[in-house]
Amino acid sequence: MSKLPNGIRVRWLGHATFDITGPDGRKYLIDPYIKGNPKFPRELTHEVFAKGAYAYLLITHPHTDHFEDALPLLKNDPNLKSISQFEIGRWLTSQGVKDDQVTGMNTGGTLKLPGLRVTMVNAVHTSSITENGIQRALGFPIGYVLRFDAGFSLYVAGDTAVTMDMQIVHDLYHPDLVILPIGDFYTMGAEQAAYALKLLQPKFAIGCHWGTYNGMPPGTPDELEKELARYQLSTQVIKLQPGESLT
User: Residue 25 and which of 48, 79, 89, 192 are 20 to 30 A apart at CA?
Assistant: First the structure.
C-alpha cells in the first residue's frame, strides 16, 4: 500500500544521497555522493549518471560526502540544473559549469519550479571544501523544504543538530515526511533527532547519515524509533536500506 500521494517516490542511495520523483515524473537528486560512497548501490551508477536522469541537483553543503559527484554530474549533463547556497553556486561556475545550470539561492528564499516550490532553510553544521589538499570555508549549510502542488511537503534537514528553527519549519510548511541525520558524531544522533521530530510532527521520518563506514556514524533507525517513543508521537520511522524506496 502506498504511503505517499500521487506517484511521489523517495529513494535512499546511501549515506545522505536521495532521489525524489515528483508526481509529474521529474526527478531530483539530493547531495550526490556516489563514487566514494560505500553504501551506494553500484548497480544504479549508470542510471544516476545517465543524461536526462534528473531535472535538478539539490546541494545542502559542499563536504565531500554530500558533494563529491556534483561537478561530474553537472558537466556530464548540460541540461541538469543545480540548486545550492549562493557561494557554492559561484564555485560551480568557476569550475566550468554553465551559468544557466546554476541557481545560487540563500536561506529563506523559495524557488518556484513546475509543480514544486523549493525553500531553503537553516541547518546547524559547518561548510567547507578541500582543494589541492587545503580546506577552506565555502558558503554555509542549509536544508530544503520541497512543497509539491499535489499537496505533499518534504523537509530534507541536511547535516544539522536539532534547532528550534525546526519549529518554524513545522509552523510554516507542515512537512509530511522528514529526512534527517541520525548518525551522531558529525550530526545529531537519535536523541536529538527524536526531539527534532517532536518539533516537526511529520507523518513519516527517514533517518540518514548513519552506518556508512563500517558502522560509522553509529546511529540506527531502531535507536531513533526507541527515542521517539518517549514523545508518544504518531510519526512512523521508515527503515530503508540503500536502493529501497518509499512510495
Answer: 89
pLDDT per position as a tens digit, 145-182? 999 999 999 999 999 999 999 999 999 999 999 999 99
Segment 219-241, tens digit of pLDDT: 999 999 999 999 999 999 999 99
Residues spanned by the domain of 128: 9-241
Burial class for 93, CB neighbours closer than 10 Å (0-12, 13-18, 19+): middle
Q: Which CATH number is 123's domain given?
A: 3.60.15.10
With b for 16 or more beta-carbon neighbours within 10 A and e for fewer, the 146-184 pattern comes to: bbbeeebbbbbbbbbebbebbeebbeebebbbbbbbbbb
**What global pTM score does this model have?**
0.97
